[in-house]
Write a structure and sequence with these properties.
The protein has about 190 residues and is mainly alpha-helical. The chain is built from six helices and four strands. The protein has one domain. The strands form two sheets. The chain has a two-stranded antiparallel sheet. A two-stranded antiparallel ribbon has the order 3-4. Helix 5 packs across helix 6.
């Protein structure tokens, strides 16, 4: 028994040190070189932090672009999806409710024109981005609420589109917080 017990204890100690000490320290050191030094990339306006670049926020006023809905109430400490399948009756009622709300606030939009990301939860519940289509479909509402031409808002949306990584990986996207900050700068 001693023949197997001592090597097992040695291997356990080695892997505890490797996995619980060395690896986390290595990851923390690498994170120091990332934007925000591993604490998250904050976005500031006039010296005041207004949010994080990679965590979605809730916008409900008609004068702002709306984010993707969050099953976690945009709480990074408890990120989660809804965990309901596409045939779940509660899920379908929730999606229909979001569609109805969107149509009330965007009367010029047809139900078929609403991108799915504006009425369904993301996997993490923290998605900070929407598609260009998700932004363009909201332009008429925002132009009316702000008394600004739709063309001016469309130009702003076009300027905020982030292209796929290396032109290949992922879709085009728009960070909603950054877009709304630029929207507030319009005169």
């Amino acid at each position: 028994m001693k023949k197997y017990l001592l090597p097992s204890l040695k291997l356990t100690a080695i892997f505890i040190i490797l996995c619980a000490v060395i690896y986390p320290l290595f990851i923390a050191a690498v994170a120091k070189f990332a934007p925000g030094s591993g604490k998250g990339e904050t976005i500031s306006v006039n010296g005041k932090v207004v949010g994080y670049a990679n965590i979605g926020q809730k916008f409900t006023e008609d004068k702002y672009f709306w984010s993707r809905p969050s099953a976690a109430a945009y709480n990074a400490a408890g990120s989660s999806g809804s965990n309901k399948g596409p045939t779940n009756p509660d899920y379908l009622k929730d999606v229909q409710s979001k569609i109805d709300t969107f149509l009330v606030h965007n009367p010029t939009v047809k139900k078929s024109e609403i991108p799915s990301e504006l009425v369904t939860y993301s996997g993490s519940g923290l998605d900070p981005d929407i598609s260009a289509q998700g932004a363009y479909v909201q332009v008429a509402r925002i132009a009316k609420a702000r008394n600004v031409s739709e063309e001016k808002i469309k130009e702003l949306v076009a300027q905020q589109i982030q292209k796929p990584l290396l032109g290949l990986f992922g879709p085009e996207k728009i960070n909603v917080l950054k877009l709304n900050i630029e929207l507030d700068k319009l005169k």
